[in-house]
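#lab-general

N.A. 3:47 PM
ok so I finally got the sequence cleaned up, no stray characters, all 495 residues accounted for. can someone with queue access submit it? mine expired

B.Y. 3:52 PM
send it over

N.A. 3:53 PM
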Amino acid sequence: MTETISTPAALPVALQHRFADELPELALPWRAEDAVEARLLALSEDLATGLGLDPVALRTESGLGLLTGTVVPAGATPVAQGYAGHQFGGYSPRLGDGRALLLGELTDTDGRLRDLHLKGSGRTPFARGGDGRAAVGPMLREHVVSEAMHALGIPTTRSLAVVATGRAVQRETVLPGAVLARVASSHLRVGSFQYARALGAQAGDDQVLRRLADHAIARHHPDAADADAPYVALYDAVVAAQAELVASWMLVGFVHGVMNTDNMTISGETIDYGPCAFLEAHDPATVFSSIDTGGRYAYGNQPAVASWNLARLAEAMLPLFDADEEAAIAIAQESLGRFAGLYADAWTAGMRAKLGLPEGLDDQVLRPLLEELEELMTGGHVDHTSFFRSLARLARGDAEPARGAVLDLVAFDAWAERWLALEPDADAMDRVNPVYVPRNHLVEEALDAATGGDLAPVERLLEAVRRPYDERPGLERYAAQAPEDFGRYVTYCGT
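B.Y. 4:20 PM
back already:
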């Protein structure tokens, strides 16, 4: 007698396929690899609810099927997205989702269109020799760090869930496999435009590029549609969004680690939490990625790299700016030239807030104050996160925590005297300076435990970072620096 194996019915989820329909040249229909034994490791319940999904239903067999792509709702069209990209400065004309799938788009409870995307769902034709799988540790890293970034108010893709697959993943050792279900405003990247431009060059027209730009305007920057030059307005909007985004990274000490053009979104959301980490000792030269041997994506280089990536976007969009190439280049240069000022304004405003100072402060007063503070922090290798909280204590009259963090006390005392004369608002400082970020030693401790089957450390870390500004008893170790024997921290991309 033959045994009948039943497949769970798909959840009644309305997944749209707008990207697949509008840009079939960038969308390769594909299906996820089967999970041997799906088991939920993490779920963002507030995100699920905001997407109109029932967190209880997502824990069922059908729900896990949706989160791994193995049970697809009727009418859905899962696709692997095609894109190109500059990786560490070198151009790759065909990258794409080698281990990922766009399941489709959901309309959330606020009426916004959101991508539901999988990572680690198996090989696609874009895999370039990889196995298409992901390990539990790196997927939980993305879950933890993206949840922390969301709580910090930084635009980001978010992890809806991490599901163990029951499959082994061969890296340096054999590791348990997992799939990340990720949500984003979209997965359009600078690399998407580079790919579309290359397709247009092959076909002798720019129709794919133009449709991609129209899609991006409708998804992310609808005001550009009414501009005299809509595609220039789109580019301007991306430049502004990225200036704000990178400034927000710098303010909290976040190091992305792999700022390739395929990891820069058109929406202005942070994407891809592979070799990423938060600063402890403040140092512009800090690099966490194992493969960034030249320091291209060091903390202090991030604004310049963002500008470089945006120049590559401009190159891809040139045919949309003007039919005359010289005129198009002039337009691009003028638009890109605004990035430095936009970034400086965003960073300066953020630093002013971190120091509890009022708006409208004379730049001749504020600028030297910020420059000298940067020198003090770098020279003293102060802890980036806790130092700003200690400054709030200084504003309340307790000088020792801040003074104990610096090396040059004479210079710091002179700086502090000038800063205190401006009457900083300590309560306002505490509202923008986090107590808790995903500190590197705690992340590794939690991921090691989860890989071995113990999820409690991940859950405790999430409890801290989901409310980063509220200091709470019992969470002291989540605000503390790494022990001295932790050593130099290195992260890996996970592929």
